[in-house]
């Protein structure tokens, strides 16, 4: 036997290379490569130039048209469309092409042109096969739907996320998907924006086969030869081809949409429902209506602002690119936050040790993690591996081996500093020490620490699995290498880092406190809790400040408010005596079953549903103190720029995404109008509404 080195062994064990068809190309385009093998099957491979992922720009679509024209003269008996990008097929349309458009007719013209090219693909007389690995979203799925067959690799994820951008599918997806699979399933996919994995896609008929890479070529040949067994069509398609049946289903879809997305803020779901209700079963009519509807939605403020949110997300993600060299995380504190941070890190592939003085608390955290993995991880192997990586550490020995130590104990300065004194001598010389404090300045926590350059704040938000943002908190002695690794760590675990400077409350909690405390003042004045919450919800917040305070925990919120009042010059209202009494009596919110609201056994608040519509002043009283604090944080340099601030507030608090973020809303409304309103509120309600001097530098125009 010939000797082999380690490199040769790994090469033998490496995954099989992606199948791209014949090696020699008939035609090389900028983004596409066309080839044909001896079996007369043509391969059209997309590898968008100078981009890490494939997206459908106008240039890419134009070249697809040219490639299809080239196909006509090569005598191919089948065509395969595939991506050369390792990450996936096509991630959708290039959103940069849609930014700042304002003319509906121009959008319609561009869409009709693009539809013509996708229709050309769909009309080819030969079998066409989309081979899909990794992501296949939006316009990418619409290209795949125009093919006669779809073959998926086991890692494929397919979906239409357009609804999250204030849109619906616009390149034929509305009529092709509802014609291909159960229309109820199709509409649910488009209305929710949820993805389906390969196995589910096969079960619903969205793909015709799920194969491993080594079987792609054989599957392609079977499809081209007409030997691939397909399972398409549904009895529901026939029933829902009738207008009365669609009207009944549309009524249900509309009711569900109204619970999730108010029509005045998010029109796209309702436009999609109407499209299908009025034109389902008539592909040509639905195509024409899709183009018009998509074009009108695209130029709307909602879609343009949600696209801005998409770019805010990309900006935060970009700051997290690169390797962090963090493979082992040690979490101290297995309560709700610490346990969930540990579970999330293990789910994202890191080795995690979890320590706590109370062994029962660790056991409960592992139990919560197992429940989370059962719900969110897609295979028994993934669930098993995640639990294997999450290790209870009853003796706390993991602290000496970890690349990152995260402290998530009770929010008290003396407790955290005592812990630092205990663990600092045990931490590796190149390891990072992070605190999950939500409000305590790091200058206070670092006192006596031998290596302040390796201390950073990593402030996660609750619930960890849903809230994407992590505040990466710097202080004046933090090393740049430490901060860079902390940002990259967030990327490793698929979270969005917002770089902020150390100050009481940092950015998000400081701004949120202004919002919550004004709600407490209103309750103190005798205003109904339900009306206060409705004012915020009508503005577009995911929940009102009263419900949010209960969700956070009144005890936690009270500690933050006390600390901010003590440490800051911000004009924070006095804490009502009844709020202090509630916390003392254990009425701390939803977790206790009673807080500002009383909760049923499912954790739902008991609310009075019939409340009058709140006035504009109530909305301004809630939201403008938050905006005023945002401007103050910008002026003080707590956050570097408006984009980071807007992203942080959207992804940490759910600030009405369709408004594009608090600073974008402020600019859209106009600084002069907000300053004038603040002065009016100052006259009526006190100095806490005094406009911050930072408004002067903001100006009125975006």
Q: How much is the average pLDDT?
A: 93
Outline the low-pLDDT stretches.
1-15
CATH superfamily of the largest domain: 2-enoyl-CoA Hydratase, Chain A, domain 1
Strand order of the largest sheet: 14-13-12-15-16-17-18-19
EC number: 4.2.1.17
Protein name: enoyl-CoA hydratase
Catalytic activity: a (3S)-3-hydroxyacyl-CoA + NAD(+) = a 3-oxoacyl-CoA + NADH + H(+)
GO molecular function: enoyl-CoA hydratase activity; long-chain (3S)-3-hydroxyacyl-CoA dehydrogenase (NAD+) activity; NAD+ binding
Question: Explain this structure to me?
Answer:
- The chain has 702 residues and is α/β, with parallel strands linked by helices.
- The protein folds into three domains: 27-299, 2-enoyl-CoA Hydratase, Chain A, domain 1 (Alpha-Beta Complex); 322-494, 3-Layer(aba) Sandwich (Rossmann fold), CATH 3.40.50; 509-698, Orthogonal Bundle (N-(1-d-carboxylethyl)-l-norvaline Dehydrogenase, domain 2).
- 48% of the residues lie in helices and 12% in strands.
- It is built from 29 helices and 19 strands.
- The strands form three sheets. The chain has an eight-stranded mixed beta sheet, with helices on both faces. It has a seven-stranded mixed beta sheet with strand order 1-2-3-4-6-8-11, sandwiched between helices.
- Strand 12 (328-332), helix 14 and strand 13 (351-355) form a beta-alpha-beta unit.
- Helix 25 (616-636) crosses helix 28.
- The longest helix is centred in the C-terminal third of the chain and has 21 residues, at 616-636.
- It is globular and about 80 Å long.
- Residues 1-15 have low confidence and may be disordered.
């Amino acid at each position: 036997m010939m000797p082999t080195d380690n490199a040769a062994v790994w090469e033998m064990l490496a995954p099989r290379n992606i199948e791209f068809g014949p090696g020699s190309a008939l035609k090389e385009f900028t983004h596409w490569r066309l080839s044909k093998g001896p079996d007369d099957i043509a391969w059209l491979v997309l590898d968008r130039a100078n981009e890490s992922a494939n997206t459908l720009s106008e240039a890419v679509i134009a070249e697809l048209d040219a490639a299809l024209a080239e196909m006509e003269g090569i005598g191919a008996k089948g065509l395969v469309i595939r991506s050369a990008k390792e990450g996936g097929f096509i991630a959708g349309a290039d959103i940069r092409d849609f930014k700042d458009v304002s003319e509906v007719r121009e959008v319609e013209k561009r869409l009709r042109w693009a539809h013509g090219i996708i229709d050309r693909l769909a009309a080819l007389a030969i079998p066409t096969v989309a081979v899909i690995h990794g992501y296949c979203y939006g316009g990418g799925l619409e290209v795949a739907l125009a093919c006669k067959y779809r073959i998926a690799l086991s890692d494929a994820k397919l979906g239409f996320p357009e609804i999250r951008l204030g849109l619906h599918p616009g390149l034929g997806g509305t009529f092709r998907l509802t014609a291909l699979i159960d229309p109820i399933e199709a509409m649910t996919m488009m209305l929710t924006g949820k993805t389906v994995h390969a196995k589910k896609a096969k079960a619903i008929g969205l793909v015709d086969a799920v194969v491993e890479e080594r079987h792609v070529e054989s599957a392609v040949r079977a499809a081209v030869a007409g030997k691939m067994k397909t399972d398409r069509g549904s009895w529901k398609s026939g029933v829902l081809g009738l207008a009365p049946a669609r009207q009944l289903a549309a009524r249900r879809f509309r009711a569900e949409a109204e619970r999730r997305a108010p029509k005045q803020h998010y029109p796209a779901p309702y436009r999609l429902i109407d499209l299908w209700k009025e034109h389902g079963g008539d592909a040509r009519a639905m195509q024409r209506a899709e183009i018009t509807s998509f074009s009108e939605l695209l130029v709307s403020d909602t879609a343009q602002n949600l696209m801005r949110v998409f770019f805010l997300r990309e900006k935060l993600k970009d700051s997290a690119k690169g390797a962090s060299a963090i493979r082992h995380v040690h979490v101290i504190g297995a309560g709700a936050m610490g346990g969930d941070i540990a579970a999330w890190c293990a789910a994202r592939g890191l080795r995690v040790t979890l320590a706590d003085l109370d062994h029962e608390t660790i056991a409960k955290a592992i139990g919560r993690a197992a429940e989370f993995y059962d719900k969110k991880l897609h295979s028994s192997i993934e669930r098993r591996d995640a639990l294997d990586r999450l290790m209870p550490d009853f003796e706390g020995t993991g602290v000496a081996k970890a690349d990152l130590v995260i402290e998530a104990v009770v929010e008290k300065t003396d407790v955290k500093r005592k812990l630092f004194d205990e663990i600092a001598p045990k931490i590796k010389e190149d390891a990072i020490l992070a605190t999950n404090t939500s409000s305590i300045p790091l200058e206070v926590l670092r006192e006596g620490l031998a290596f302040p350059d390796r201390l950073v704040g990593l402030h996660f938000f609750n619930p960890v699995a849903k809230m994407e943002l992590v505040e990466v908190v710097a202080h004046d002695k933090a090393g740049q290498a430490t901060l860079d690794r902390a940002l990259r760590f967030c990327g490793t675990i698929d979270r969005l880092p917002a770089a902020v400077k150390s100050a009481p409350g940092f950015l998000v909690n400081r701004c949120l406190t202004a919002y919550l405390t004004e709600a407490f003042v209103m309750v103190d004045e005798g205003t109904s809790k339900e009306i206060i919450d409705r004012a915020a919800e009508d503005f577009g917040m995911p929940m009102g400040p009263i419900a949010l305070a209960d969700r956070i925990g009144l005890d936690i919120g009270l500690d933050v408010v006390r600390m901010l009042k003590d440490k800051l010059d911000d004009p924070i209202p006095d804490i009502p005596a009844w709020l202090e009494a509630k916390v003392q009596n254990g009425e701390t919110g939803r977790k206790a079953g009673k807080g500002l609201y009383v909760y049923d056994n499912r954790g739902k608040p008991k609310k009075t549903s019939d409340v009058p519509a709140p006035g504009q002043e109530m909305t301004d009283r809630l939201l403008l103190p938050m905006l005023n604090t945002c401007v103050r944080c910008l002026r003080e340099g707590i956050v570097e720029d408006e984009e980071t601030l807007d992203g942080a507030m959207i992804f940490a608090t759910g600030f009405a995404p369709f408004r594009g973020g608090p600073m974008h809303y402020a600019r859209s409304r106009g600084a002069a109008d907000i300053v004038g309103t603040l002065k009016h509120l100052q006259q009526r309600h006190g100095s806490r509404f005094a406009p911050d001097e930072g408004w002067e530098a903001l100006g009125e125009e975006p």
